[in-house]
Amino acid sequence: MDETRKAAFFDVDGTLVRTNIVHAFAFYAMNQGTIFGTAWHTAKTVVSLPLLWATDQANRKAFNEMFYSFYRGQSEDRLLFLADELFERVLRPAVYPGAKRLIEEARRAGCRVVLCTGALDFTVRRLAEHLGADDLIANRMHFVNGFATGRVVPPIVEGAHKALAIRDYCSREAFALDQSFAYSDSFSDYPMLAVVGHPAAVNPDVRLRSVARAYEWPVLSTQEA
Amino acid sequence: MRPPSKLRRFYETTDQVVVTDKDSPPRLMFFGEDFLVEDLPVGTKVIFPNPPVAGLPNVRAAIRWAVNHPEGCDPLHAQLRPGMKVTIAIDDISLPLPQMRTPDVRQQVLEVVLELLGDAGVDDVHLVIAIALHRRMTAAEVRRMVGQRIFDSHWPDRLYHHDAEDRDGLVSLGTTGHGEKVVLNRRAAESDLVIYVNLNLVPMDGGHKSMSTGLTSYEGVKAHHDPRTIRQSWSYMDPPHSELHRSVDRVGRVIDEHLNVFHIETTINNRMFDGQLGFLMKREEDFTDGDRLKLEAMRASLRLLPKAARRRLLHSLPAAYEVIAVHAGRTEPTHQKILEASYGQYLVDVDFQADVVVYGMPYISPYNVHSTLNPLLVQVMACGYFFNFYRGRPLVKPGGTLIIAHPCSDEFDPVQHPSYIEFFHRLLPETRDAAVLERKYEREFAENPTYVHLYRTGNAYHGAHPFFMWYWGENGRQHLGRIIAVGADNDHVPRLLGWDTASTLSEAIDMARSTHGRGAEIAMLHFPPIVMTQGPA
């Protein structure tokens, strides 16, 4: 492994943009093509929100499985078609003012910029291009005959698996993990932060802020330019 | 009969040096955010600061006089014309220490200058805080420094911090004959006139150093803040004998060739405390019962307060500094006049060098305003600033022992000093060799995107700053034989710094005597306030 090659891994939701994966799903739910379809999916999403929230608090993996099952039956071409609109209407306005600067600083330091997110790849691809990322590690929806099955292609990218994905990525691309950087806002990404040599908490939640203080990790904000 | 060694006190010629005898009172010393009161061995020479020089009776009048009678150039009003582009660069609040009472002298200078500019029809005026690689100040700190009126009318569009990491905001002016890179703030470089508003606390400040470090990039600072240059600086307070200043002057002369720079330099006296804390400026011989009572009450209060509250209290106590000189004009003649005033305040003649020098370390340095004096800053104060408080030759002999009093707590401020934490805990366990640290790690820290981001958007020192702090102690480290920390609350911080520890001052003196013998000459620099020694080179 080249000791000098390094990468910077960025969580997306809450770190670079103020949205989360529920926003993306809500956008799809409200753009179903028919009035009844939109009403049904929107109502289902709204009703499910408390359950999703509670599940997220208890177990991020269970949350992801439950959450992605909501995509079951959606056609692939429609999801891809709406991805551009999702980016323009939801994601681009939600990019934190300091996000691009942080990414540029990582690039200037000679890092390959990689977004590492639990979101579905087609929902964040345009965002990755917009932010100038070199690579994307994201979940991929499983499709059969052009329709989503509601399951993601394993291994699911979240929590401990993000760390594994980053480790594999560095190994495959010959980057030095101990020279690499990781940025996230959430305690659920602790493994991803712990696996690299230079972790940092960005707009951290209470638990991550506490961990960052304990381990003396830098705490950043991207919420201001 | 009195032994010959005891006769020497009859030969002391200056009042500022007092030889301790059996009747001498215990001495008051800074001990971080506390104070110590300690007896010193008989024969110890205590070097007291000069009394404060009288302040100027009318500072605004002095500023007006200075800009109307500048050194080596036309008066400021004669250099102004409508429509010209002017940049005013201002020193940040790393000086003075503690912060001076409002109105800050920078505010007073700015008020005079902005009025002049307005009268001359100069509208394109930007105020740039020359922070170099220091932290950005908070809005409240800027407001306090420049005053409410200027803040309201300029912040943040026309009053802002220099950004040493903004590639588009910097411009290269070439290199000096010695190869030092000259990089400068673009706005300043493209201005018809740059006015630098400076505040000299000590003689190492000001002059060419203002522009060439305050408005440059990491590469620009690195040109002279390196171990080799520091090792050849004897001392920082004596610019002609400081390689750092020779380098800075070379850079500054290139800047002066390209730009029209009008310096307004100011300096202040050493009235660090007054009022209820005025006793801290006294000699212990002059303490009244009331003073002793106040001291004990203050110490008891400080100990009762939680750390954060204690720190907030100490940093909120403004100093009663008075402006003693204002000069303006071309860089070198202006600075020369300010240096004379500054030396007049601080220098105390001494005709000896000591084997052992003692001083108490305060809670504050230029780099921890409203924050904690972390271990790296304790080091920079001991080996960098206080050791360099001399002109001619160091107070301590080569190979001598330095005894400092400070708790040396393993405590860092993650907001102001994030890169210090990694430097201290990751690099110092590997090596204390400044050259190795520079070669292996300096650029890594300087380019670390996290530190760059925190410097540019937060209130953090630049990623490379801890390296410069370590280098800053380099001449002290190479000169001294041993450093003993008294009262450290842990073992690992002094060990990482390469220091020995002692639980009491008397134990430390015994340790020093084991090296230098029973007849070791001991001296104490009595802070507060600031004092510098001057001896034959």
Give a written overview of the molecule.
The complex is a heterodimer of chains A (225) and B (537). Chain A has 225 residues and is of the alpha/beta class. Chain A is built from nine helices and eight strands. In chain A, helix 1 (21-29) packs across helix 4 and helix 4 crosses helix 6 (121-131). The mean pLDDT of chain A is 88. Chain B folds into three domains: 4-43 and 350-534, LarA, C-terminal domain (2-enoyl-CoA Hydratase, Chain A, domain 1, Alpha-Beta Complex), CATH 3.90.226.30; 59-268, Rossmann fold, CATH 3.40.50.11440; 274-316, no CATH class. Chain B is globular, with a radius of gyration of 23 Å. The longest helix of chain B has 16 residues, at 243-258. The relative contact order of chain B is 0.16. Chain B has a seven-stranded mixed beta sheet with strand order 1-4-19-14-16-17-18. In chain B, strands 7-6-5-10-11-12 form a six-stranded mixed beta sheet, sandwiched between helices. The chains are: A alpha/beta (225), B alpha/beta (537). Chain A binds chain B through residues 8, 98, 101-102, 105-106, 108-111, 181, 183, 198, 200, 212-213, 216, 218-221, 224-225, and chain B through 165, 412, 414-415, 418, 421-422, 425, 447-454, 456-458.
How many β-strand runs of chain A? 8
Main sheet overview of chain A: 6 strands, parallel
CATH class of chain A: Alpha Beta
CATH topology value of the largest domain in chain B? 2-enoyl-CoA Hydratase, Chain A, domain 1
Helices and strands of chain A, in order, run as: EHHHHHEHEEEHEHEHE
The chain-level structural class of chain A is alpha/beta
Instruction: Choose one word for the global shape of chain B.
Output: globular
* Number of domain units of chain B: 3
Give the N-terminus to C-terminus distance of chain A in angstroms.
Answer: 36 Å
How many helical elements of chain A? Answer: 9
